[in-house]
Prior knowledge:
Layout: E1 3-5, H1 10-18, E2 24-25, E3 41-42, E4 55-58, E5 61-74, E6 80-89, H2 91-101, H3 105-127, H4 139-169, E7 173-177, E8 183-185, H5 189-194, E9 203-204
Helix pairs in contact: 1-2, 3-4
Keywords: Signal
Signal peptide: 1-17
Region (Disordered): 28-53
Amino acid sequence: xxxxxxxxxxxxxxxxxxxxxxxxxxxxxxxxxxxxxxxxxxxxxxxxxxxxxxxxxxxxxxxxxxxxxxxxxxxxxxxxxxxxxxxxxxxxxxxxxxxxxxxxxxxxxxxxxxxxxxxxxxxxxxxxxxxxxxxxxxxxxxxxxxxxxxxxxxxxxxxxxxxxxxxxxxxxxxxxxxxxxxxxxxxxxxxxxxxxxxxxxxxxxx
Length: 206
C-alpha cells in the first residue's frame, strides 16, 4: 500500500542552530544495513501531557525537536494508521554542516529523510496487527495497545535508516512517533489516503 507523509523544511534545521527557542511548525501534508544505535530517550522533563518533549537524549547528545511530520499509511484498503512523528536533530551538527557545506545541502537531507520516513511508516503499519483485540477491556486499552505496537515497530524499522543517514551525512537525528496522536483505521483507510488534506499549521514552543 501507499504511505502519505509530510516533511520538515530546510529553514527550520538551519534556524535551530541560531536560536534554541525557534518555533516548531507542522508542515502542510503532502502525498507521499547499518547496526541500529541504542534507542534514544525523550527528555521527560520537557514533555507535558499531550505536548511532545522538546529535547531528546541520544548517545550523550541532546537533540532538539525541529519538526513534526504527519503521516498516513494503509495496510490494506480497510486498515491503516495515521499520526504525528517527531523529528529531532543535534544543533551543533547543523551549525557545523552549515559552515562546512553551506545551507543548500539541507534540501538533499530533507528529500532523503522524507523518502525513508515514508518507507519506515509503511513497514511499521504492515508489521502491526490492526485487527480487533478480543482481550482488550475497552476501546482505550485497545488504542493504547495498538499505539504501543506501532511505536515499537516504527522504532525498530527506522533505527537502521537513521544510522545509515547519520553515517553518510554526519547529522545526528532521530524520529519517533508521537503516541497520543496515533489513530487507527479498521475500514476506509484507502479512501482517507486518497482524500486531499486541508493545510494545517501547528506551532510548538520550547
